[in-house]
Amino acid sequence: MCGIVGYCGPKKATGILLDGLKRLEYRGYDSAGIVVQKDGGLDGVKRTGKINDLRAIVPEAMTGNCGIGHTRWATHGGVTDLNAHPHFDSANRIAVVHNGIIENYTQLKAHLNAEGVVFRSETDSEVLPHLIAMYYEGDLEKAVRSALRRVKGTYGIAVIHADEPMRIVGARNGSPLVVGVGENEMLIASDVTAMIAHTKQVVYMEDGEIVSITPDGFTMTDIEDKKVNKQVDEITWDLGSIEKEGFACFMEKEIFEQPETIAQTLSGRIDAEYATGKLGGLNMSSRELLGVKRVKIVAAGTSWHAGLIGAHLIESIARIPANAEFSSELRYRNCVVESDTLYFAVTQSGETADTLYAMRELKRKGARVLGICNVVGSTIARESDGGAYTHAGPEIAVASTKAFTSQIAVFYTFALLMARMRDMSISSGFRYVKALQSVPEKVRETLTRRDEIQRIAKKYCHARDFLFLGRGLMYPVALEGALKLKEISYIHAEGYSAGEIKHGPIALINEETPSIFLVPADELREKVLSNMKEIKARNGPIIAFCTEGDEEVASIADEVVTIPRIDELFYPFLATVPLQLFAYFCALELGRDVDQPRNLAKSVTVE
Ligand code: AGP
Predict the structure, then answer these.
(1) Which atom of ligand 1 has the smallest separation from the CA of 602?
(2) CATH number of the domain where residue 294 is located
(3) Which atom of ligand 1 is least distant from the CA of 349?
(4) Is the domain of 410 the same as that of 521?
(5) Do the beta carbons of residue 200 and residue 344 sit within 8 Å?
(6) Domain-located, residue 437
(7) Selected catalytic residue, list 2, 249, 461, 586
(8) I need a surface site. Which of 12, 313, 361, 543 has the fewest CB within 10 A?
(9) Structural domain contains residue 602
(10) Ligand 1 centroid, distance to 599 Cα (angstroms)
(11) pLDDT at residue number 289
C-alpha cells in the first residue's frame, strides 16, 4: 500500500526520493509525488501513474537537500493528480505525506472549512497540513504533536515546513515508519527497502512516537513530549536482495530462490540428536509447550493457506487440535480465548492490518500470540509474545511465493517439536528430519520442470476459468495455486477440496474449463484419482501434478507435471512450486504486470 520516503543531508534529495519511491513500487500504488525545500519555499510535483512517469515531469531545477515523497494507493478519493500526496496547507509552507486513514476527517474538515480553509483534494489526508498549520507557531514538531492529538485513525506521516530547513518530522500510529541513520544524513521511510541503498542502521518507530530528524541525528518523543530512548538496529540483508539479478521479474527470482530460502528457514531449527524442532524465539519452556491443548492460527491470503497446512500438521502429527482462521473474521467476532490455547499470527509483511488487529484483540483477552513473520522489526514481530522469523529475505513481488514455503517450513519444525514432546518416537522423528532436510534439494529438482510448465501454461492460459483440486494437505495447496493464478493473471480460478466438487462445482465442468489436480503419492491418491475420473467423464481437461513414475495418473490426465518422490507429509512444498510457476507463466503469456498486479498491494495496511 502507500509508501513514504524522506531525506535530509548533503546530497540532492530529488534523486534519492525518486529512487526510494521506485523501491517502494512493489507495495502497490496508483500515484506518487515528491516535495523538496528550495529557496525558502517548497517545490513539489505529483501525479497519477508510475514512478517513471513522475520522474519524467520532475524539473531539473527542482533541487534541494531535504524532502519527502509518497506512493499512494487510493482509499478516500479517486486516482487523480490532486489526490496524490504530498498535500499542502493553504499557504504552501507545510507539506505532508500520509499512510493510513484519518477516521474523523469529516469532522476535522468541517471544522477547517468553517475556519475558511479551502480543500484541494478529496482525501482524508489533506486535513493534516491544514491542522498542523493551524497550530504552527515556529516549531513544527510541536505543531504536529498538537494536530495529532485531534486525529483519530491510523497514520505514518512525514512533514516538512518551508521555515524549518533540513528538518523532517515523522509520526506513527498504526502505519509503519522507520528512521535511517546515515553519516551526516538521515532518512525516514515506511519500509527499509527505500533506504537500504544509503544506510543499514535503522530505528523502528512504535505507535504514538514522534521523531524529528536533521542531518545530525534524531530525537524521538511520545505524544506527551516525553523523550523516548531508541536502539539502532542493523539490517542484515543487502541491496542485492531487492534487485532482480538477471531474472525477468521479482516473482520469478523469488520462485527460484526457494531452495535457498527454505534451507535458510530451517537453518539452526532442527535438533538432529533428538530428532526434534528448535525454536528458541517462541519464548516458551518445554513445560509450557506441553501444556498447550489447542492451536489457533490467524492470517490472511497466502499466509492463511500456510496456516491451514500448519494446522493440519499440528493436528495430525502432534495430535493437538488446531485450526486456521481469517484474521479479518476473527477480529470482529467475539472469539473465546482459553489459557491453554496457543495462537499464531502468520504474516509475511508483519503489517497486515487485519492480522495485527486480530492479534491485538487476542492479546487483549489474555492470549499468548506467537508471530511467524518475514519482515524483521515489523509491527506484528515486535508486538507478538515470541515466534519465529521465516528468514526468506525481502519479498518484493506482490504475489507471495518464497514467504509461503518458508512459513510452512516453520510449521514443519513446530509440529515436529510438539509431536516429539508427545506421541512421535525418536525413530519416526529421524525419518521426519531426514525428509525435511531433503526438501530444499527436492524443490531445486522440481524447478527443473520449468519448461514443461511453461508449455502447458501457454496452451491453457486463455481458458476463462480454472479449478484447482486437492485433498488433505493438497487442499490448501490448491487454494494457494488458485490464488496465485487469480492475482497475477486475472484468470478466474477456484480452489476446492477434490472431494467437494460433486457437491456443486462439477456443474462448471465442460471442455473449456481445465481442472488442475494435485495428486501426489499420498494416502488420498486413490480418492483423488476417482475425482479425476469424474471430471474426465464430463470431458473436462485435466492437468495433473503427480509423483514421478505415476503412470495411472498420466493415463487419465491430458497433461502431467511430475514432482520428485518424498515422504508424503512433505508434498506441500513440491506441489506448491509448480503451481507458482504455472501462474507466473500464464501471467507472462498474457502480458500482465507480474510483480505489481492491478488493484493489489504487497502489504495491506488498511481494512
Ligand atoms: C499473496 O500472494 C497475497 N498478495 C496476499 O494474499 C497476502 O498473502 C496477504 O495480503 C497477507 O499478507 P501478509 O502475509 O503480509 O500478512
Answers:
(1) 4
(2) 3.40.50.10490
(3) 15
(4) no
(5) no
(6) no
(7) 2
(8) 12
(9) no
(10) 13
(11) 97
Structure confidence at residue 237 (pLDDT): 80
Residue 430, all three cell numbers: 529421524
Please indicate, yes or no, whether the overall pTM of this predicted structure exceeds 0.85.
no
Tell me the pLDDT tens digit for each residue of 548-580.
Answer: 999 999 999 999 999 999 999 999 999 999 999
pLDDT of residue 29: 86
pLDDT along the chain (607 residues), means of 10: 93 96 88 96 96 94 95 89 97 96 94 96 96 97 96 95 98 93 96 93 95 97 93 86 86 96 94 95 95 98 98 97 97 93 97 95 97 92 95 93 98 98 96 97 97 97 97 98 97 95 90 96 95 94 97 96 97 98 98 91 79
Q: 597 lies in a domain?
A: no
Whether ligand 1 lies within 6 angstroms of the CB of 390 is answered as: no
DSSP symbol at 352: -
pLDDT at 18: 97
533 is catalytic: no
> Is residue 435 included in any domain, yes or no?
no
DSSP summary character for residue 102: B
Residue 389 half-sphere exposure toward CB, CA atoms < 13 A? 16
Q: CB of 303 closer than 6 A to ligand 1?
A: yes
Whether residue 226 sits in one domain with residue 248: no
Pocket test for ligand 1, best of 373, 374, 400 (most atoms within 8 A of CB): 400
User: How many angstroms is it from 585 CA to the middle of ligand 1?
Assistant: 20
Nearest-CA residue for ligand 1 atom 7 is 301
List, in order, residues 6 or more apart from 526 with CB less than 8 Å away: none
- CATH number at 46 reads 3.60.20.10
Q: Is the CB of 574 under 6 A from ligand 1?
A: no
Q: Tell me the pLDDT tens digit for each residue of 98-111.
A: 999 899 999 999 99
Q: Give the separation between CA 423 and CA 203, rounded to whole angstroms.
A: 44
Domain total for the chain? 3
Structural domain boundaries enclosing 365: 244-424
Report CA(115)–ligand 1 centroid distance (Å): 43
Q: What are phi and psi of 276, to 5 degrees?
A: -140, 175
Considering only CA atoms, which of 63, 72, 60, 112 is closest in space to residue 96?
Answer: 72
d(CA 509, CA 65): 62
How many alpha carbons fall within 13 Å on the CB side of residue 288? 8
